[in-house]
Design brief:
alpha+beta; Glutaredoxin; 4-stranded mixed sheet; two-stranded antiparallel ribbon; 8 helices
């Protein structure tokens, strides 16, 4: 009987640790955004013709926490993220593994590969895995939702953010 309980527990832990999108989630996040793992995000971005939004954060960072508590849970932000992006969260201090372009990284290594300078930093990546833009720092909901619309709609390829904001 104990062997059965132990085997069941091991299988349950293995399932949880290998589940693609369960690993991408963190129970502290209060938003309704469907955060994905990096390799799954690349696949979905290709299938759905979307960009990838990467939230690079640290657990100790008060501005990261404000983004998680105040900005991402906003209905407009959630709507724009769902419309244009496949979202990914990367913890700058995590040893959790991820796959990107057939290579394995820890989240910490991947954040360094993105060359982040501060947290939070939001990266925008195309479906080919190329960074098309980044925005460091905390942004209030109105500015962040406008930025998401600007990048997600492709307006960044034609006009400046200031021009976009005027329209």
């Amino acid at each position: 009987m104990n062997v059965l309980k132990f085997t069941t527990a091991v299988l349950l832990v293995a399932f949880i640790c290998t589940s693609d999108d369960l690993n991408a989630q963190n129970s502290n996040f209060q938003d309704n955004i469907n955060w994905r793992s990096m390799d799954h995000a690349l696949s979905l971005a290709e299938q759905q013709d979307k960009l990838i939004l990467i939230d690079v954060y640290a657990e100790w960072c008060p501005y990261c926490q404000r983004m998680q508590d105040e900005v991402y849970p906003d209905e407009l932000v959630e709507k724009v993220v769902e419309q244009y992006f496949v979202p990914v969260r990367i913890n700058t201090e995590s040893s959790q593994k991820l796959r990107f372009m057939n290579r394995e990284f820890t989240q910490e290594e991947f954040a360094r590969a993105l060359r982040y300078q501060s947290v939070p930093t939001t990266y925008f990546m195309n479906k080919d895995g190329e960074v098309v833009g980044q925005q460091p720092g905390f942004l209030p909901v109105d500015v962040f939702s406008s930025l998401l619309e600007y990048v997600g709609s492709g307006a960044y390829e034609e006009i400046s953010f200031d021009e976009f904001e005027k329209n």
